[in-house]
Each structure stands twice: as C-alpha cells, then as structure tokens.
Amino acid sequence: MIELKHLSFSYDDKHQILDDISLKIGADSHKVIGIMGHNGAGKSTLFLNLVGELKPTGGEILVDGQPVEYSKKGLRALRRKIGIVFQNSDQQIFYSIVKDDVAFALHNLKVPADEIQAKVERVLKELDILPLKDRPIQYLSGGQKKRVAIAGIMVIGSEWILLDEPTSGLDPDGRLRMKMLIQKLVANGQHIILSSHDMDFMYEVCDYLYLLGDGKILAQGGKREVFNDEQLLKENKLEQPWLVKIHQKLGLPLYDSEQELFANEGRKHN
Length: 270
Prior knowledge:
The protein has about 270 residues and is of the alpha/beta class. It has helices at about 45-50, 70-80, 100-110, 115-125, 140-155, 170-185, 200-205, 225, 230-235, 240-250, 260-270, and strands at about 1-10, 20-25, 30-35, 60-65, 65, 80-85, 160-165, 190-195, 210-215, 215-220.
C-alpha cells in the first residue's frame, strides 16, 4: 500500500502544485488505479513524488507502512518497489538493443550474468516481445518501446508500475495491446497506477479513480460513480467516456466495456 500523509509540493513559494493530499492507494485491493486531471493539475508531479524523483515540500509518503527515505540507499529500495513508465518512452531507454536496455538495472544491482539473461528473457516473454530482444530500439514502434520500458521495471520485480499517458501515440491496435498488457500485469501480481486523458481507456481498465484538480483530490471512487458526475468532469476539462454518455442520454444499461455492450444489446435484438 502507498499512503500519502498531508503531501504538498511546490517548485517555488508562490504556487502549490500538490496541496495537503492525504490518501491510501491500494488499501482496498484495487489493482488498477487511475489519476485523472486536466493539464497542469499535478498528475506528473504526483508521479515524480511517488518514485522519489521529487521530494515533498510538506507531508510524507509511506510505502507498506514505512516512510520513504531520501538517501541513496532508500531511493534505490523505493525504485525497486515502484517503477515509472514515462509518456515518452525514449526518456528512459538508454541502450540501442532491446535486451541490453532491459538488463541495465540488473547490471547496476550487480546481478550475476547468467541470472540477468534468464530474468530478461522471462520478462520479454511475459510481455510478448521476446522476438525483439536483439532488435535495435530505433526500429521499434511506439507501443513496442513502451513494452521495453515496462520490461525494464518488471525485471527488477517492481510491485507498483506507474504508467503516464500509456496510450499516447498508440494506434487502435496498440491501444488494445496496452489494455491487454495491463490485464496481464495485474494477473502477474503487479499494481498499476495510470494517468491519461483517454477517458474511455480509463473507464475500461481502472477499478478505482482519483480526480486531481488545483492540487487537491476533488473526487474519488469506483469508475461508475466518478464518471457519472458530468458537471464535475466538465469543470475539470474532462469528457465522460462514451459508454457513460449513452447510458445517461439513451437510457441503456451502464456496461463495463464495448464488448459487453455489443454482446448484450445484440442478444436483445436477436
């Protein structure tokens, strides 16, 4: 569990990006947690605080009941527990060949060479990119690069994975693959926290959501209750998912996915 206690952060003394936030993430066995908010709401700043790239200017972060320590040793332990995949995967890919990049963190941890090879191949296989292991990074698609970045986190055993705009730049096939990948990560025991402007994607994959605005948590809850509040979403420059819109405007049941909608409505008309 990740707990924020009166967390605040500002880059200067004039404007609080995060303002006295207290919450417990994953406290109720939620597996995929969404952080919503308009540009400038503080989502990326929150993520950077969670992985120790930024240090709170007020309050504290606890992981599994222990306060984060900002020593070199403490941050190394934190990043083994919580990993982040940035919106632009190129920000965290340093090597030119897939297998070398995924192995980077393990070399830093002084893991034996034979163990590194086994771990890298296992993770690449889990992410369905084992055939890419000898491929130059420059020839990968955006979706493939995101998988390589995720592999670099999974290989060190991170329990929590933060995904910043995971569908950004992906075509419909890549978006579907990302959805399936998140489901696979959850099945493997990982916890996911993601931020996205793709409300349809958030609706389909998240089981709990937080709405961040003006540095504060404005709403939280299950996807059905959070996304049903059309006015609050509009005030925060966000749109309702299309499944919620047709539920409210056309009176159809509120389905969890497009597939469920078509399957159930199709049966009614047969």
